[in-house]
């Protein structure tokens, strides 16, 4: 994205506490940690940081439960203590998200923090320009602009526009073109905007000021920034830190699982519903093959997602060359309690845990098949549909014809889950 190479200086502590995701806030948070002797130990378990951890939990819960994003109202950032709580709550929440290694959670959290920022920025005329210049390479404010009139009630439109905060923002064409496809609504289509000298003017509307439009565009860039940073820093979380954050990670994952109706439908999947990758790993372990770590973690996490008893999952590993019941039980318990999301097809392929080649399994060949849980869901739906058809067409209980028919029908009948 064409973001600025040099960011404007922001030193006001209240602003940095309000927008802790800003690149300019990193050194401020580091200095706060030094001045107040807040180290990792203190952040994770110290009494002084308890309030920050509580606020972090609220940030994370809001990320999952609220469409409006993280609540705007936080601590009192006009006091030093309030700023510390706000800054470290963001920092702690971020660590939890990194430790989850869950790209869906990262995306959700980034969206929620960016939505919160948009709400504040819409009213924050003091800082809007600096923050815009942090994330948008070409942005300028025109206090004197008079909007061209676009409707028949020109006089009233002019009056309304002039009654806004007086600012009309112009954004570089490259930035506009990159950001706007992610936003729905005709006002964000280039053809409906005025372009001059390589800039798009964000005119005031009756219900939508130029500044609010800029804040909306900034939301996309802020989300992208938070997401990118999370994906890069996620790799730095070592096993020890991941274990120490297992409890809040589990809390967030459980919350996400409870939101996902698919999770409920998956409970009760029969063995014949299992995808080839899962069946193959079980078969390899049974045959004494040393399945790699990624495959083992996948098997434990998908077993948990299917609500298989933990003892059954431990049983899958009994043939492994390095099997030790106590160690495996401990590791499986950890995965079950952490509610890890099973890896998707692309990661399984990358780690050599997907056994199918094109043509081996027609369900795996379908273009939207990108997750083993979708495989299970698709199989369940197909079975349910077949059972229904059997009741309607074959009241005499005669058997259903062969697998070939069934597989073909899967493609035709399954309602595509989450393709968009
Ligand atoms: S394509 Fe996906 S669901 Fe099918 S076996 Fe490979 S990883 Fe499993």
Question: What's the quick description here?
Answer:
With 420 residues, the protein is mainly alpha-helical. 57% of the residues lie in helices and 4% in strands.
The portion of residues forming beta strands comes to: under 5%
Give the ligands present. iron/sulfur cluster
Number of domains: 3
Please tell me how large the radius of gyration is.
26 Å
CA-to-CA gap between the ends? Answer: 23 Å
Q: What oligomeric state do the depicted chains represent?
A: single chain
Query: Which segments are poorly predicted (pLDDT under 50) over 5 or more consecutive residues?
Result: 145-163, 260-267, 394-420
- Structural class comes to mainly alpha
Can you give the helix content as a percent range?
55-70%
Mean pLDDT: 81
H/I helix tally: 21
N-to-C SSE string, H for helix and E for strand: HHHHHHHEHEHEEHHHHHHHHHHHH
The largest pleated sheet is described as: 4 strands, antiparallel
Count of strand segments = 4
User: What strand line-up does the widest sheet have?
Assistant: 1-2-4-3
What is the overall shape?
Answer: globular
Topology readout:
Elements: H1 13-18, H2 25-35, H3 40-45, H4 50-65, H5 80-100, H6 103-121, H7 128-135, E1 139-142, H8 154-162, E2 168-172, H9 173-179, E3 195-196, E4 199-202, H10 210-233, H11 239-244, H12 246-259, H13 261-266, H14 276-286, H15 293-305, H16 310-316, H17 325-338, H18 345-350, H19 362-365, H20 372-393, H21 403-413
Antiparallel strand pairs: 1-2, 2-4, 3-4
Helix pairs in contact: 4-5, 4-6, 4-12, 5-12, 6-10, 7-10, 16-17, 20-21
